[in-house]
Write a structure and sequence with these properties.
275 residues, alpha/beta, 8-stranded parallel beta barrel, 8 strands, 15% strand, binds 2-phosphoglycolic acid
């Protein structure tokens, strides 16, 4: 059981943590999943990279499939001075060796990869990744200077049973088990209810707010002041039309976007509403 925020922190500390929130630059992360081809990745990166010049109040990242990393990296370096960062959708924890089909953070160094999504629910579900695996991947990313975006999210039956917060806190604690305070300032957390991903039915601010507060509470209790500055994203059917409403949720510091990240217009539309 997590202690409540009031018990653990006094009013002055809470106020300080609230002030920290006001200074966190939001992050918009696009997960392109298994979509596109060279021409598509090139064009989409160009459109986003060129526009990011106007978005100096929002950090932006796109994560193509591994085979697109080189193309996107090339386009980002061509658009000199863009704020667009490059990410990947998964990572292997070892540096190199006999790991057929895997890619490590160190292999991505030449491509200037800044972020790695770890523990996305699709990988947990379809590739059998456990929270222990996620923690190992997060640690490996941090060790190589790649910011992990650690995903957590409850399935529909858990949400219907009203067990969301305890499920999320358990998954988060396990997924961050090996991540110590020394590198915690590099962390990003993404709360993505499984039932909201790709469904067109985003969670409501009412659903999200208590979960983000619990996540923030957990981060502060584990990492102290540093935990108050860790960015917490929401993911699941985010689009330009619901961005403004979602942005009002306390402790929300950005979005992890799937479908709407595949078109420059909708991705940039979300970024525009985040400013
Ligand atoms: P969606 O995907 O925006 O298409 O719901 C989100 C995600 O999987 O990260």
């Amino acid at each position: 059981m997590m202690p409540t925020l009031k018990k653990k922190f006094n009013g002055k500390q809470l106020k300080r943590y609230k002030n920290v929130q006001d200074f966190i630059k939001p992050l918009l992360a696009g997960n392109w999943k298994m979509n596109g081809n060279v021409g598509f990745w090139r064009q989409l990166t160009r459109e986003i990279a060129q526009s990011t010049l106007d978005f100096d109040t929002v950090d932006m990242m796109v994560a193509p499939p591994f085979v697109g990393v080189s193309t996107v990296s090339e386009e980002i370096s061509k658009a000199m001075g863009t704020g667009l960062a490059l990410g990947v959708q998964n990572i292997h924890h070892e540096e190199s060796g006999a790991y057929t089909g895997e890619t490590s953070p160190s292999l991505l160094k030449d491509f200037k990869v800044s972020y790695a999504i770890v523990g996305h629910s699709e990988r947990r579900e379809m590739n059998g990744e456990s929270s222990v695996d996620v923690s190992t991947k997060a640690c490996a990313s941090l060790a190589f200077g790649v910011t992990p975006i650690v995903c957590v999210g409850e399935p529909l039956d858990v949400q219907e049973a009203g067990d969301t917060e305890s499920f999320i806190l358990r998954e988060l604690a396990e997924s961050l088990r090996g991540v110590f305070i020394r590198r915690a300032d590099q962390l990003v957390i993404a709360y993505e209810p499984v039932w909201a991903i790709g469904s067109g039915k985003a969670a409501t601010p009412h659903d999200i707010a208590p979960v983000l507060l619990s996540i923030r509470h957990y981060l502060i209790s584990k990492y102290g002041d540093i935990g108050s500055g860790v960015r917490i994203l929401y993911g699941g059917s985010v689009k330009p039309e619901n961005t403004e409403e979602l942005m009002k949720v306390p402790h929300l510091n950005g979005f992890l976007v799937g479908g709407a990240a595949l078109k420059a217009e909708s991705f940039l539309g979300i970024a525009d509403k985040m400013r």
